Amino acid sequence: xxxxxxxxxxxxxxxxxxxxAYMADPSxxxxxxxxxxxxxxxxxxxxxxxxxxxxxxFIAWDGAGGSKKRKELNPNYKSGRKPIRLNRNIELPIDMxxxxxxxxxxxxxxxxxxxxxxxxxLDDIEADDLIAYLCNKFIxxxxxxxIVSNDKDFLQLLDDCTFLFRPAEKDELYWHGLVVEKxxxxxxxxxxxxxxxxxxxxxxxxxxxxxxPTIAKRFPFLSNDEVHSLDQILDKxxxxxxxxxxxxxxxENESKIRDNYNIMQLYSPSLSYESxxxxxxxxxxxNLSFDKKQFELLLNKKGIFGLSLQSLYSSMEDIVxxxxxxxxx
Length: 329
Fold this sequence. Notes:
Layout: E1 7-13, H1 14-24, H2 36-52, E2 56-60, H3 68-73, H4 94-112, E3 118-120, H5 127-138, E4 143-148, E5 162-166, E6 172-174, H6 176-183, H7 190-197, H8 212-218, H9 230-240, H10 245-252, H11 254-264, H12 273-285, H13 292-301, H14 310-322
Parallel strand pairs: 1-2, 1-4, 2-3, 4-5
Antiparallel strand pairs: 5-6
């Protein structure tokens, strides 16, 4: 699947990994305050660095107002999400829970700032768009790119040199061939298929009865690498007539599907010219260095002791030693 002679870039969906760490790691400091989001994130970062052996690491965060553009298309976007389930028997009022979560995110950002990784965040831009831009426009095909996220939206980005770890599936490594094998839909057409299905995790309603298996069955041409359009889907539906309820439902929901596609597609990430300039400037001006002593001192200041991080340190030292430059397409 991967070409061993290519440099490897690790791209992490920051909030996705942060929430997983916050949910799963029950670690507390000497005062009994929860610090699991920070310790869990660092341990997961070590794990993926060990598996990928990256020459560069990017951690993408949602910017302030990042969901605004998509909410304009669908006001229900990302609303009504279920409360996260915690791996600990502590119940706090929602305002205290939010304060604790925010504090840990800020602590994590401070800790990561002492590692030779690029933390990227832009106002009005979601992490999804940043990651898509990194894969499509920013990092050239000379590098293999490994995304870490549970978000199925990233399956549409997979190609010969772009892969996805999905922690929810025991870190199965997805590549474009596996997407076709599992879903019967090529990554080039995955956003189109999902715009018909919808996405309950983001509160995006789809067409009733139109799951991915049904779409793959009724529109088998979506499995090839040719990029297809909603107009072709609609033409095919008209050819099939009213034999299947789902076909009628697709025709009746054309407008919704188009809006869904505009929300879900990452082939053309939503970054302005000014945003791309800002991102370029940040990467060009960031000096990737690593001081192990300062890093450990900050961990201790945050109440974090006793982590075994030797392989993380080795990965960070390799990144600084190799000094691989970002190549832009």
